Amino acid sequence: MGKDRVPAPDNRGAPQRRAFLRAGLAIGTASVAGSLRAEPSLGAGMPGSMTSLGAADLPYGRPAATEQAVQRVAHPTAPQTAGFAIWRSPLQSQRGIITPSGLHFSVHHNGLPVIAPERHELMIHGLVKRPLRFDLERLMRYPMVNRIHFLECAGNSAANALSPTARNDTLGDLAGEVSCSEWTGVPLSYLFNESGLQDRAKWVVAEGADGGSHARSLPLSALLKDGMLALYQNGERLRPSQGYPLRLFMPGFEGNVSVKWLHRLEVTDQPAYTKDESGLYTQVLANGQIERFAFHMDVKSVITHPSGRQTMPEPRGFYEIAGLAWSGHGRIAKVEVSTDGGTTWAPALLHGQVLDRAFTRFTLPWQWDGKKATLMSRATDELGRTQPTRTEWKRKYAMQSFHHYNAMQAWRVGSDGRVENVYA
Ligand SMILES: Nc1nc2c(c(=O)[nH]1)N[C@H]1C(S)=C(S)[C@@H](COP(=O)(O)O)O[C@H]1N2
Ligand SMILES: [Mo]
What is the average per-residue pLDDT within 60-76? Predict the structure, then answer.
């Protein structure tokens, strides 16, 4: 096989991947770079920025003026008003695994409460030996841990789950209710250790200090294992959207249980069946049964580059397919990518350290021949869990169910270079 020939992906595994990479490297930079012509003016003129004084910097940095169009997108359309709002993260404009704090998705059922940190308190009570009360000053003195984890709303990708025809939207609009941050805070086990637990203690009801008193019941064992009181997000104190001054954070669990503006943990012997877990966030299966307390977010992946509503800048040539994979059960073990709608697959490269219940970056070099192609990714986690097709997912749940949607996302690349959401 000549070096200039890029083989179509198939499922032969590692050798195929090497062929992809060889092809990618051989043609990579050279075929993306435009040819450089030595303009006569090149030696004469310096860019203006080199011959004048720069602008003043700001006390708190901001993205470049030309990047400020990269923003969260709100749904419904008047989210600035109080009440229920979803802000989706523009995943298609990000390239790492950490979501910048200002672009973290957000869901609030009752608007953003304004909380004075010096008056905020956390109470631990119920089936404990010694009820405790903490102010922020006291909490900040505990030893803290740093953990990089994704957070995903159970309702992420609802449009793909519900809409009978694929909506032509951006990735952020379709699946942007997921983000990944470094969270820093106090493990809950430290505090329960101090309060002590009565023999009957089995569940914990976590309540937020926002209007509507958002509350969820969680198994005590899960909280003791890796529940965290998060105080910092990506190195700075939590943003108001993320629950300032204090939130519960449960890695791998549906976002809804990570109660923001946390002010109360009540230890009980059974779930409280709050409105947020019996009315909302339960799901009807195809056989009519109700799935309750389905905490874990399953394995999922999305191709971020290229993705919905983008246009390929050139009608053929080298492109790096890039995406994100994550699983609420553990680490990502592999991601496969198809360019022919799922007929053949090639293993993608996983970047960096693959972290537990965190975003993992994957890439695959792709030589596009300019013909219609359907790009898909399929992630598998270390437990061997993998993503269903949309049809398989729909078969499991009742018609109107939309939570925990993790079917493979497909993008059609048209011969005109337009990229569009499709069901495959
Ligand atoms: N107190 C409180 N906690 C809450 C919510 C809320 O409305 N109030 N929304 C929940 C939902 S539905 C999700 S998906 C996550 C979103 O967290 P984020 O806004 O930090 O992304 O917070 C959860 N915690
Ligand atoms: Mo959510």
Answer: 93
Asked if 144 and 283 sit in the same domain, the reply is yes
Q: Sheet harboring 410-413: ordered strands across?
A: 346-347, 332-338, 373-381, 410-413, 419-422
pLDDT band at 26; cut points 50, 70, 90: very low
> Is the per-residue pLDDT at 29 higher than 80?
no
Tokens 């004048």 — which residue?
52
Confidence band, pLDDT 50/70/90 cuts, at residue 152: very high
Nearest atom in ligand 1 to 105's CA: 21
Task: Give yes or no: residues 229 and 152 share one domain.
Answer: yes
Q: How far is the CA of 51 from the centre of ligand 2 (A)?
A: 51
The answer to whether the bond into 306 is cis (omega within 30° of 0) is yes
**What's the CATH number where 181 sits?**
3.90.420.10
Residues in the chain: 424
Q: What is the spatial distance between Cα 223 and Cα 220, in angstroms, rounded to a whole number? A: 5
The answer to whether residues 323 and 407 belong to one domain is yes
Please tell me the distance from the alpha carbon of residue 9 to that of residue 141, in angstroms, as a whole number: 54
Domain limits for position 221: 101-291
263 and 357 together in one domain: no
* CA-only gyration radius of the chain, Å: 24
The structural domain count of the chain equals 2
Q: What is the domain-level CATH number for residue 393? A: 2.60.40.650
pLDDT-derived band of residue 41, with 50, 70 and 90 as boundaries?
A: low
What is the maximal distance between C-alpha atoms in the chain? 83
- Same-domain status, 189 and 160: yes
Please report which confidence band the pLDDT of residue 291 belongs to, taking 50, 70 and 90 as the band edges: confident
Instruction: Confirm whether 196 is domain-assigned.
Output: yes
What is the pTM (predicted TM-score) of this model?
0.92
105 with 227, same domain: the answer is yes
Residues with CB under 5 A from ligand 2 (ion): 107, 153, 255-256
Q: Tell me what pLDDT residue 84 has.
A: 86
> Measured on CA atoms in the order 42, 44, 45, 50, is the torsion positive or negative?
positive
* 195 Cβ inside 6 Å of ligand 1: no
Query: Which of 284, 217, 287 is CA-nearest to residue 256?
Result: 217
